[in-house]
Amino acid sequence: MADRELTDADLLHLMAGKDEGALRELYDRHATWIHARLSHRCADSDAVAEVLQDTFIASWDGASRFRGDGEVAAWLWGIAVRRLISRLRRRSDIRLGPALLERDAQELSAEEQVLLRLENVDVGTALARISPELRVVLQLTVIDGLSTREAAVLLGIPRGTVKSRLQRARATMREELA
């Protein structure tokens, strides 16, 4: 492996053997974007910093359990989202970030702008036309892969409301794409 750059999966394998250098490298590769995505969902910088730290501690502890059947980045993001939800459950004073608040189309994150520029322009146009309250539910459940229960906790609304908004969002998307 010395003559090629280590992959993220290689780093996890090394971390399973308690290689701290591998942890530092994985952190250097992923901490910035994970921090940005967490900050977009939670406006409390201390909470974001703690969740980021918890994410990499969990990756260190769980490196041996990574099966290699998916992207390491997605695995890390899954850990981060679960840690954020867990933190939000314990604290009611954490402020949600701009990704979870209603806002104008001009305030879309870079991530959302990319999604709106999907190869199929009709999908991007349809996403741009749905209301922010429906779009955020789609983002959390479809893009971030949260359950309706987890999305409800993160948004601070009942699970039934998440389900009904998701149903409305899907119906609206079908109409927009028809």
Automatic annotation (TrEMBL):
InterPro entries recorded: RNA_pol_sigma-70-like, RNA_pol_sigma-70_dom, RNA_pol_sigma70_r2, RNA_pol_sigma70_r4_t2, RNA_pol_sigma_r2, RNA_pol_sigma_r3/r4-like, WH-like_DNA-bd_sf
One Pfam family per UniProt: Sigma70_r2
Protein name, as recorded: RNA polymerase sigma factor
RNA polymerase sigma factor 70 region 4 type domain span: 123-173
Every RNA polymerase sigma-70 region domain range: 26-92
Family membership noted in the UniProt record: Belongs to the sigma-70 factor family. ECF subfamily.
Keywords: Sigma factor, Transcription, Transcription regulation
Top-level taxon in the UniProt lineage: Bacteria
